[in-house]
Design a protein that fits this description.
This protein has 196 residues and is of the alpha/beta class. The protein contains 6 helices and 8 strands, in the order βαβαβαβαβαββαβ. The chain has an 8-stranded mixed β-sheet with strand order 3-2-1-4-5-6-7-8, with helices on one face. The two termini are 30 Å apart. The model has no long low-confidence stretch (mean pLDDT 97).
Length: 196
């Protein structure tokens, strides 16, 4: 049984879906939900689900990213996770952190990578006149949103869409895609999951 640590910064809707899926015949179980934000709504949801929670507030490190990440590692490692699932964890991780967990870190990103790395993905897709948007799950490497893609789901962009409209539809697909990819990844299968 693989052990999964989920890292969040906000409400944790993807974390909840991952944790709900990790039951019964699933090859993994959540052992930790960690946030860099002590006010993250997902912490209470994780606690209600019986998952251990931890907080490492990045604001206490005032620009010392290495110090913040050393603290993260010191909190995460006692839980001995086999997989780290970033689920709305809004911190850019350094090469040192990624190397420490090399081959074990997943992230979900709200665009069809390699398009629109970084922030404001929905607004950028609409402004570019794209006909579709979506989300990607990828393995985390030192390159921002640049690791191997393990799954994608597509969402049409319709006339009059605002970034919020599009984000809401993409989130529905995120909740389907991330659990499907994690289930495969936990058994060593990196075949991409492609949802229509």
């Amino acid at each position: 049984m693989k052990r999964v640590a989920i890292l969040i910064s906000g409400g944790g809707s993807n974390m909840v879906r991952l944790a709900e899926d990790m039951r019964d015949d699933h090859p993994a179980r959540p052992v930790l939900v960690l946030s860099n934000n002590p006010d993250a709504g997902g912490l209470a949801k994780a606690a209600q689900m019986g998952i251990a929670t931890e907080v490492v507030d990045h604001r206490n490190f005032k620009g010392d990213r290495e110090g913040f990440e050393r603290k993260l590692i010191s909190v995460i490692d006692p839980y001995a996770p086999d997989i780290l699932a970033l689920a709305g964890f809004m911190r850019i991780l350094t090469e040192e952190f990624v190397t420490h967990y090399a081959g074990r870190v997943l992230n979900i990103h709200p665009s069809l990578l390699p398009k629109y790395k970084g922030l404001h993905t929905h607004a950028r897709a609409i402004e570019a006149g794209d006909k579709e948007a979506g989300c990607s799950v990828h393995e985390v490497t030192a390159e921002l949103d640049g690791g191997p893609i393990l799954g994608q789901a597509r969402v049409p962009i319709t006339a009059g869409d605002t970034p919020d409209d599009l984000a809401a539809r993409v989130l529905v697909q995120e909740h389907k895609l991330y659990p499907a990819v994690l289930r495969r990844f936990a058994v060593g299968d990196k075949t991409p999951v492609l949802l229509p």
